[in-house]
Design a protein that fits this description.
Chain C: InterPro entries: ABC_transp_permease, BCAA_transport_permease. The structure holds three protein chains of three kinds. Chain B is an all-alpha fold. In chain B, 68% of the residues lie in helices and 3% in strands. Chain C is globular, with a radius of gyration of 19 Å. The termini of chain C are far apart. The chains are: A alpha/beta, B mainly alpha, C mainly alpha. Chains in contact: A-C, B-C. The interface between B and C is large, with 41 and 47 residues.
Chain lengths: 242, 352, 298
C-alpha cells in the first residue's frame, strides 16, 4: 500500500479552483518533486495534504486511513509535516522555542533540538535568538528543523529555496540530501527544474490545477517537463499521459 | 464574472424600489397629519419611535458603513441634552436651543474624531466609552446640573402641554426624515461608493485611493450630530435632565440591539430594527430586568447566528431592495444577487 | 503625601489584576472582551453568595469559584467567541457587549440593587494594617492584593515562556494557521487561554469584593479600569500591565487630591493623555498602541 495517496482532490479558494481533480500516490522512502508555474496549484495541494485547506472534493489517505476530515494539528500527529512557503516561523519566539513547538504533537522519534542543530550547525549560535532576527538561510533551516521535530513519516517542503542565495540553497539541499538518503519520504515543491529532477525519484508537473505530466525523474527529459510546464504538451502526442 | 459575453444590465432602482419611494412619501405625509387622530399618549410614543429610528440609523452609519463600532455613543446623546439645557439657560428659545445644541455636538465631535479615529476596532469601542464616562463626570461638575440631581428645561414650560407635544412630535419627525434623507443621499452619492468600499475592505479601499479617514470622519460627525439631535429631542419630551440617565451606556445598548436585529450595514435594516425595538419595548418594557436580559441575549444570538440581521437576511434570500443605495448588476442568464459591485465604486473624488 | 503614593501603588495591584486577563485574551485571541468587568462582578457575587449563604470564607470560596470561572472561560471561547470571531473583528465586540448586558441584569434579577461587600467575611483582614517606617500605615489586604498581582503576572510569564502549553498559546496568538501546521490544536490553546484569563478575572473579582463594595452594574467601570491599565501599560508585556495599573491608580489618587470628584476623572484623563502622546509619537493604530507584533496570517 502507498504511504500517502491523493484521490481526485479538488480545492477551491472562493470561486477559484486552485486544484482540479489531482490524484497521485507516494511510496515509503520515495522523493517526489512537484513542479509547475506560479499559480499551478502546488502550494495549495501541499497545504491541502497538510490539512490547512479543506478540499471541496476528493480524499487524502495516509497508510490507507482517510484524512479528509482530520484537522491539521492531528495530521502532524499522524506523521505529516509541512515546511510552509515563506517559512512562517513564529518570529516572536526563539529558534529553540520554534523547534520545541514542532514536538507538540508528541510523535516518538529520534529528532531533538540537538540533532537539528547538528544538522544545521549555523543555528547553534542563534539558539536563543528570536527567529525574526535571523537571516533567510537560518530561518529556512529553523523551519525545516521545526517540521523534523515532529518525526514525520512524510515531509512536505514548499519552495525551500525561495529568496535564498545560491550558496545557501546548496547548503540547505546538502542537508536535505542526508534526509533523503536516510529514507525519509519527501514531497517537495521546487522552482529550479534541474535541482528538482536531481534530488527526486519521481516528478509531477502541474498546470492550472491539474497533473500535466508524471514520471520517474530519471526517465523524463528536461524538454518534456518544460513543455508540460508551459502547457505545450497538449499538442504533442509523445508526452507521458497524466 | 468577466466571462459573461452578453451584456449585463446595471441598474439602481427596481420596480419595487420605485413603489417603495412613493410609499415612503405617503407614509411621511400620513405621519405628519397623524397627531390630529392620535391620543396624547400615542403621540408621545410615536415621538419616541422617531428618536429610536434616528439613534439606530446614526449608529448604523458609524458601525455598518464606517466600520466603527462604538459603545460610547451615549456621550453625544447626553451632550445634546446638556448643551440644550445650557443654551436655554443662557436665554435662547428652548426649541432653537435643541438644534443649536446638536450643532455644537457635531462641531465638538470633529476634533474628537482626529484623535479617536486612529484607534481601531475594540480600542475605538471602549475608547469611546471612556470618553463618555469622562464627559459624564465633567458635566456633573457643572453647577447648573447640580451633580446627579439634575435639572430641567424649564423654559419649555411656557408652552402649553398640547402645543408642546405636537411641536416636539413634528420636530422629531422632521429631524428623522432629514437625517435619513441626508444619510440616503450620502450613500447614493460618490461618497457612498467610498463608504461601501470601506465597509467591504478598508485596506483595499485605501489602496485604490479612497479617502478612508476623511470618509470615516464624515460619518463620525454625522452620527454625533444625529445622536445629539436625538438627545436634545429626548430632553424636550421628558423635560428633566439627569446626567446618569442620559450618559447611560444603555442608550448604546439600544442602538446596538436595533442595528444588529434590523441588519447592520443596510439602510432599511436600521429602521426595521428601531421598529422591532419599539414594539418589544411597548410589549415587554414593563417586565423590567427580564426585558433587558432579553435584549442582551437577542443581541448575542443575532451576532452569532444571524449577523446580517433581519433585513440583511431578507435581502440576501429574496434580492429585495426597497431603498437602493448601491448598484446592482443583472446578468442576462442567471440572477446575481444585488451587492454593490466594486467596478462601479470608482474612486471617490468628493471631499469628505 | 508619601502615604498616599504608597496606597496608590498598592491599588495599582488591583488594576493590574483586573487588566491582565483582558490584555492576555486580547494578545492571544485579538478579542477585547466587553463582558470582562461583568464577569469579575459575577465572581464577586458568587463568593458573596457562598459566604452569606453557606458561611464559606471567600478565600476558601475561591477553590470553588476559580474552577467555575475556568469552565466559564472555556465555554465562552468555545460557544461564543470562536463563532463570532469568524465574522470579523467587529462582531466579538457586539457579542461580548450583549453578554455583559445579560450578566449585569441577571445579577440584578438575582441579587437586587443593594451594594454588597466581601469585607464582613474576611475578619480583621479588611481593616488591619502594618506600620512602616515613617509612620506609614499600609493595609494588609492591599499588600496581599499587590503581592498576588506580582505573583500572578510572574507566574503567567513563566508559564508562557517555560511550558509546552504556554508556547502553544504564544504560537497560536502569533499565527493560528501555522500553529495548526506544527501540531498545535489552536482551538484548544485558545480555550485554555480563555480559561486562564477567567481565573484571573475571578481573582480580581474576589479582591474587588474584599477591598470595596460592588453592585450588579459595577462591571462597566471595572472594564474601563482594566482597559485603561492595559493600554497605559501596553498589552504586549505582562509587567507593563502592572506599570499601567500603578500609573492609573496614582493618577486617580492625585485627582482625588485636586477635587472631591477627581478620582475617576484623574484616571480617565491620564489614560487619554497617554493615548494621545502615544498616538502622536507612533502614528500607529491598534498594533502600535498595544505594542503587538503584526500577525503574519491575515
Amino acid at each position: 500500500m502507498s504511504l500517502l495517496s491523493v484521490e481526485d482532490l479538488v480545492v477551491r479558494h472562493g470561486l477559484l479552483q486552485a486544484v482540479r481533480g489531482v490524484s497521485f500516490s507516494i511510496e515509503r522512502g520515495e522523493t517526489l518533486a512537484l513542479v509547475g508555474a506560479n499559480g499551478a496549484g502546488k502550494t495549495t495541494l501541499l497545504r491541502a495534504i497538510a490539512g490547512a485547506h479543506q478540499p471541496a472534493a476528493g480524499r487524502v489517505l495516509l497508510d490507507g486511513a482517510d484524512l479528509t476530515n482530520v484537522p491539521s494539528h492531528r495530521r502532524v500527529g499522524m506523521g505529516i509535516a509541512l515546511v510552509p512557503e515563506g517559512r512562517k516561523l513564529f518570529v516572536q519566539m526563539t529558534v529553540e522555542e520554534n523547534l520545541l513547538l514542532g514536538r507538540t504533537a508528541g510523535r516518538p522519534g529520534e529528532w531533538s533540538v540537538d540533532r537539528v542543530l547538528d544538522m544545521f550547525p549555523n543555528l547553534k549560535p542563534r539558539r536563543h535568538a528570536k527567529t525574526g532576527h535571523l537571516s533567510g538561510g537560518e530561518q529556512q533551516a529553523t523551519a525545516i528543523g521545526r517540521a523534523l521535530m515532529s518525526n514525520p513519516e512524510v515531509l512536505l517542503l514548499d519552495e525551500v529555496s525561495l529568496g535564498l542565495s545560491p550558496l545557501i540553497v546548496d547548503r540547505v539541499y546538502a542537508a536535505l540530501q542526508g534526509l533523503i538518503a536516510s529514507g525519509t519520504t519527501i514531497i517537495l515543491v521546487e522552482q529550479d527544474l534541474n535541482r528538482a529532477l536531481a534530488v527526486s525519484d519521481r516528478v509531477i508537473c502541474m498546470l492550472e490545477g491539474r497533473v500535466a505530466l508524471e514520471g520517474p525523474s530519471k526517465a523524463v527529459s528536461r524538454d518534456q517537463v518544460t513543455k508540460a510546464y508551459f502547457g505545450l504538451h497538449r499538442k504533442s502526442p509523445g508526452s507521458v499521459p497524466a | 464574472m468577466s466571462t459573461v459575453s452578453s451584456s449585463p444590465v446595471i441598474e439602481r432602482g427596481t420596480a419595487t424600489s420605485r413603489i417603495a419611494a412613493i410609499a415612503v412619501a405617503v407614509i411621511i405625509a400620513l405621519l405628519a397629519i397623524a397627531p390630529q387622530f392620535l391620543s396624547a399618549g400615542a403621540v408621545d410614543r410615536m415621538t419616541a419611535l422617531f428618536i429610536y429610528v434616528i439613534l439606530a440609523a446614526m449608529w448604523n452609519a458609524l458601525a455598518g458603513f464606517g466600520g466603527l463600532v462604538s459603545v460610547g455613543q451615549q456621550v453625544f446623546f447626553g451632550l445634546g441634552a446638556y448643551f440644550a439645557i445650557r443654551l436655554a439657560d443662557a436665554g435662547l428659545n428652548p426649541f432653537a436651543s435643541l438644534f443649536v445644541s446638536a450643532i455644537v455636538v457635531g462641531v465638538l465631535s470633529w476634533p474628537l474624531s482626529l484623535f479617536m479615529l486612529r484607534l481601531r476596532n475594540g480600542e475605538f469601542a471602549i475608547g469611546m466609552w471612556v470618553i463618555a464616562a469622562l464627559t459624564h463626570l465633567l458635566v456633573n461638575l457643572d453647577r447648573l446640573v447640580q451633580g446627579e440631581t439634575g435639572t430641567s428645561l424649564i423654559s419649555l414650560n411656557v408652552y402649553d402641554a398640547g402645543t408642546r407635544r405636537v411641536a416636539i412630535y413634528w420636530l422629531a419627525l422632521a429631524s428623522m426624515t432629514a437625517l435619513l434623507a441626508t444619510l440616503f443621499g450620502l450613500l447614493r452619492g460618490s461618497t457612498g461608493a467610498a463608504i461601501r468600499a470601506i465597509r467591504d475592505n478598508e485596506d483595499a479601499a485605501a489602496s485604490v485611493g479612497v479617502r478612508v479617514t476623511g470618509t470615516k470622519r464624515l460619518l463620525f460627525v454625522l452620527a454625533a450630530f444625529g445622536i445629539g439631535v436625538a438627545g436634545a429631542l429626548w430632553l424636550a419630551t421628558s423635560i428633566t435632565f439627569q446626567p446618569k440617565t442620559y450618559f447611560n451606556v444603555q442608550w448604546t445598548a439600544y442602538m446596538i440591539f436595533m442595528v444588529l436585529v434590523g441588519g447592520i450595514g443596510t439602510f432599511e435594516g436600521a429602521i426595521l430594527g428601531a421598529l422591532v425595538f419599539f414594539l418589544i419595548e411597548t410589549w415587554f418594557g414593563g417586565t423590567g430586568v427580564w426585558y433587558l436580559v432579553g435584549l442582551g441575549a437577542t443581541a448575542v444570538l443575532f451576532s452569532l447566528f444571524l449577523p446580517r440581521g433581519l433585513w440583511g437576511t431578507i435581502e440576501e434570500r429574496f434580492g429585495l431592495r426597497l431603498l437602493p443605495v448601491g448598484y446592482r448588476v443583472r446578468l442576462p442568464a442567471t440572477a446575481v444577487d444585488g451587492d454593490a459591485t466594486p467596478q462601479q465604486s470608482t474612486i471617490s473624488r468628493e471631499k469628505a | 503625601m508619601s502615604n498616599q503614593i504608597i496606597q496608590g501603588i498598592l491599588l495599582g495591584g488591583y488594576y493590574a489584576l483586573i487588566a491582565c486577563g483582558l490584555s492576555f485574551m486580547f494578545s492571544v485571541m485579538r478579542i477585547i472582551n466587553l463582558a470582562h468587568g461583568s464577569l469579575a462582578v459575577f465572581a464577586a457575587f458568587a463568593l458573596w453568595w457562598l459566604a452569606s449563604r453557606f458561611h464559606i470564607p471567600p478565600f476558601v470560596g475561591l477553590l470553588i469559584v476559580l474552577p467555575l470561572m475556568a469552565a466559564i472561560g472555556w465555554a465562552l471561547q468555545r460557544f461564543l467567541l470562536e463563532r463570532s470571531a469568524r465574522g470579523g473583528a467587529l462582531l466579538p465586540i457586539l457579542t461580548t457587549f450583549g453578554l455583559a448586558i445579560v450578566i449585569d441584569n441577571m445579577l440584578f434579577e438575582q441579587f437586587g440593587a443593594d451594594t454588597r461587600s466581601l469585607a464582613p467575611y474576611i475578619g480583621s483582614l479588611s481593616y488591619d494594617s502594618w506600620e512602616w517606617p515613617g509612620s506609614i500605615y499600609v493595609g494588609k489586604l492591599a499588600v496581599i492584593m499587590f503581592a498576588t498581582a506580582v505573583i500572578l503576572l510572574g507566574g503567567l510569564q513563566l508559564f508562557l515562556t517555560r511550558t509546552r502549553l504556554g508556547r502553544s498559546i504564544r504560537a497560536t496568538s502569533e499565527d493560528p494557521d501555522t500553529a495548526g501546521l506544527v501540531g498545535v490544536d489552536a482551538r484548544r490553546a485558545n480555550a485554555i487561554a480563555a480559561s486562564i484569563a477567567m481565573v484571573t478575572v475571578g481573582l480580581a473579582g474576589a479582591f474587588l469584593g474584599m477591598r470595596a463594595t460592588f453592585d450588579p452594574y459595577a462591571g462597566a467601570p471595572q472594564l474601563l479600569f482594566a482597559f485603561e491599565a492595559a493600554v497605559i501599560g501596553g498589552a504586549g508585556s505582562l509587567w507593563g500591565t502592572l506599570v499601567g495599573g500603578i500609573v492609573l491608580a496614582l493618577a486617580q489618587t492625585l485627582g482625588a487630591q485636586v477635587h472631591p470628584q477627581g478620582f475617576l476623572i484623574g484616571g480617565h484623563a491620564v489614560f487619554l493623555v497617554v493615548l494621545f502622546v502615544r498616538l502622536s509619537t507612533s502614528g500607529l493604530g491598534l498594533r502600535g498602541l498595544l505594542r503587538l507584533p503584526s500577525r503574519s496570517a491575515s
